[in-house]
Design a protein that fits this description.
The complex is a heterodimer of chains A (127) and B (357). Chain A has 127 residues and is α+β, with helices and mostly antiparallel strands. Chain A has three helices and five strands. The model of chain A has no long low-confidence stretch (mean pLDDT 89). Classes of the chains: A alpha+beta (127), B alpha+beta (357). Chain B: This is ADAM 12 protein.
Chain lengths: 127, 357
């Protein structure tokens, strides 16, 4: 049974992964972390992650364009890396997002996105 | 076991964790709570203001009530309710861990945020859920402090967190945008339910509800409590509450009995009554019922609705065991006069009626 730690280990196995965390985006709190965070500060990174997710969910209209639409991924590309955010959809009340930081040279965006999708699903769906 | 005394709960948690203790830190006051330690690590936390793992899982429909009850029946005595649910295939390990982590930080906010509260540590106590996760107490304390700041940045009025939620009758502007949780809160706010009631009802994290309520207060969408000067017992708290609790248990057991002791600063703001010292009981509801009995101050004793009244009882008494005798010294007294209660009650009734209109 994959737990939270296992999920993060798997995330770090994604080619090019530098760091990973699971973030509560209402409060910007890193529930679990591994590897490196931007500026070596997981808590600050989590706070920033939360701001980005909040901006996409409540401060913009992307998610309310179609009824029952749902935010899945947020992908930020920078010159040096990729930052992937995948929302973890639990049945019970939680507001969690899986965050993985990839190195630009070694990382492959498409592969990483597929892997994260699988990880986030496995975390909460019995296989 | 340490004696119940008014200290900073967060500080005592650090101290107990430093000694790698196992047991439970019971925080009194309103809403209070409990933080469970296993060899210096936080394994669970609960508070009447925060839905626990069971409420989160059943209110969302993730688990059937029966499934949860079965796991409780089987696993409570051996403290492995969590493990059972995973072994029986009802939950994934990931779900359980995330749910427990969420519940810990949520309840810890309510239990540990008071600057000072009656706190005691019961050595050796463990939680029936079992150790699903291990969290560093320092991380919990840091996060609690951060959450306090976050709320104050949104809207610096802690009264919003505890008083009954009453939506304004007329929105302050032509067009308003709500998040789905804000909608749910407004739809279920009936002028009577406190934020804690709403969180339990909706199965949403208590802190998240408080956060959204503060946002709505900042937008002018919910009525602010009209009572001005915060005092320890300024809302619907008859003065004699302390003695009543003592009478309820003649031989004073250790936990959180010092109701009359100093209340923490943060709590001196519109906090609902706790009739009982068990941190797991959402007694907020009971207290509200008592307080909202619409009777002017010196009443012809109107039996509180939540008691099966076999004799007329003054409404200020704490909950007692069924059939327990009324203590003599209390039974003989004339009904107490609650100065100021009239006005507060009337205002609350007015707010409630307005919300119904």
């Amino acid at each position: 049974m994959p737990g939270v730690d296992h999920c993060l280990q798997e995330a770090m196995a994604i080619p090019g992964a530098v760091g990973a965390s699971i973030v509560d985006y209402t409060t910007g709190f890193p529930v679990a972390t591994t590897g490196t965070a931007p500026n070596s500060d997981h808590e600050a990174a989590a706070a920033g992650t939360a701001d980005v997710v909040q901006a996409a969910t409540s401060r913009s209209l992307f998610v309310s364009a179609v009824p029952h639409d749902l935010l899945e991924d947020l992908i930020i590309t920078t010159a040096g890396g990729y930052h992937l955010l995948r929302l973890v959809q639990t049945d019970f009340d939680s507001r969690l997002v899986l965050y993985v930081w990839l190195d630009r040279v070694q990382g492959n965006l498409a592969v990483a996105r597929r892997r994260m999708q699988k990880l986030a699903d496995e975390l909460v769906v019995a296989t | 076991m340490t004696a119940s005394r008014a200290v900073s709960p967060a500080h005592l948690l650090t101290q107990m964790a430093g000694e790698r203790q196992t047991g439970v830190l019971v925080v009194g006051g309103h809403p209070g709570g409990a933080v469970y330690l296993l060899e210096g690590h936080v394994i669970y936390a609960e508070s009447p203001a925060a839905p626990g793992v069971g409420e989160l899982l059943t209110a969302s429909g993730r688990l059937a009530g029966r499934t949860w009850q079965n796991a409780l029946d089987l696993g409570t005595s051996t403290a492995r309710v969590g493990r059972l649910l995973v072994e029986q295939g009802h939950l994934t390990q990931g779900e359980l861990e995330l749910c427990v982590l969420g519940a810990i930080y949520d309840a810890a906010y309510f239990a540990l945020s008071p600057v000072s509260a009656p706190v005691e540590f019961l050595t050796g106590a463990t939680h029936w859920l079992g150790a699903v996760v291990h969290v560093e107490p320092e991380a919990v304390n840091r996060e609690v402090a951060r959450r306090v700041v976050l709320l104050d940045e949104i809207f610096p009025d802690a009264r919003v967190d505890t008083t009954a939620v009453a939506p304004v009758v007329r929105p302050p502007r032509e067009r308003i945008t709500l998040t789905s949780l804000q909608w749910e809160l407004l739809v279920h706010a009936d002028g009577q339910r406190t934020p804690a009631d709403l969180a339990l009802l909706l199965g949403k994290a208590g802190y998240t509800c408080v956060q959204e309520l503060r946002r709505m207060a900042a937008l002018g969408l919910i009525e602010l409590p009209e009572i001005p000067a915060p005092g320890p017992e300024f809302v619907r708290l008859p003065r004699a509450r302390g003695t009543a609790v003592d009478a309820h248990r003649p031989a004073p057991p250790p936990p959180v009995e010092k109701k009359t002791g100093a209340y923490p600063v943060r709590e001196e703001k519109a906090l609902p009554v706790r009739l009982d010292d068990s941190p797991t009981v959402p007694v907020v509801a009971g207290a509200r019922v008592t307080a909202s009995v619409p009777v002017p101050a010196p009443p012809p004793p109107d039996p509180p609705r939540h008691l099966i009244a076999d004799e007329p009882r003054p409404p200020r008494l704490a909950r007692r065991k069924p059939g327990a005798k009324l203590p003599k010294e209390v039974a003989g007294e004339p009904p107490p006069v609650h100065p100021g209660t009239d006005e507060v009650l009337l205002k609350r009734i007015r707010t409630a009626l307005r919300a119904l209109r």
